[in-house]
Structure formats: structure tokens, C-alpha cells
Amino acid sequence: MKYDIETINKRKENVKIAKKVIEIIAIILIYNIILIAISSANQINVINIFGYKSYIIKTNSMEPTIKINDVVITKKVEKQDLKIGDVITFLKKGEVITHRITQIEDNSKYTTKGDNNNIEDTFKIDYKDVEGKHVLTIPYLGAIVRALDNKIVFLIITLIILIFMFITIINQEKRENRREKKKIEDRKRKNENAY
What is the pTM assigned to this prediction? Predict the structure, then answer.
């Protein structure tokens, strides 16, 4: 491996760029998780983020497809885009339910059933009650969101993150000090060899 100044400077620049990219990705991920958490926490008045909504699954009615504490992301679609077999999230008597469409009547009345249930739901769903069609499941995220509702758990997680950041900063400073010390020693050796 080459260890001249130019190569070292290129590597440092590449490391800086990689760190910036990782920081940006981490910020975007954290931001989206926070939005999902805020949205999922209030199951009735869910925040619409670019046409998508998220819900925490609280029952086992859709197992094994969707499990308790999974977060489902849904997207509002037109009536004609719903078909038998689609998983939808809907409101029924103030309750949020995620089930699969088993029948469609008059292009706007839906019969649904949970994958884990033995019988179809005893009610029909109107299109106006459909919150959205299932697009994505994020396993176990609901458990994390619920845990963050607990102030003690939130405090512990925050402390762990702060400690991790502090340790990272200290280690980075130590590495920089070692590099600077090595540069000084290399310069001294070059000066001694020159005489």
C-alpha cells in the first residue's frame, strides 16, 4: 500500500464524503421513523405523508401475513384500483382494522376477512371508510414506537445515543491526535536524515 501524502489526503477526503453521506442517510431514516411513529401513535387521526399513512397492528387477525406490532404503510387508491385479495386498512365504528378484501359488490361495497380469522367480517365496508391499500409492512416497528411512548424507555434510549455519540467524538479526537503526532515524528525523521 502507498502511504504518501497525496494518497493519505485522498483517503481522508473519501472518508469525509462517506461520513457525510452516512449522516444524511441516518437523518432521513430517523426523520421517517419519527413521522411513522407520530402517525402510528394516533390510529384515528393519522398523518398523511405524501399520500401514505402508517398504522400499528394491534391484533393477530392478519397473521401470519402481518403480525402484532408490525407497522403497515397504506396508500389511498381509487375505487377501481381495489380488487379481491388486496389488504386494506379501514375505519369501522371508530376502530382501525386491516383485513383482506374477499368480495366486492357494486364496485364500492367490500367484504373483508382477517387471514387468521375463520369467518368473514359480518359487516360491509364502504369505499369512503377505506383509509388505504397495504403497500408495505415494517416488522416490529410498532413495538419500538410503543416503547418510546414510555418516558423511562425513551430516556434510556436517548442516554445510550448520547453516550455513543460522546465516545465516537472522543475516539475520533484520539485518532486525529495520533495522526498529527505521527506526522510530526515523520517530519523530524526526514529532517534528521537530511543532515
Answer: 0.60
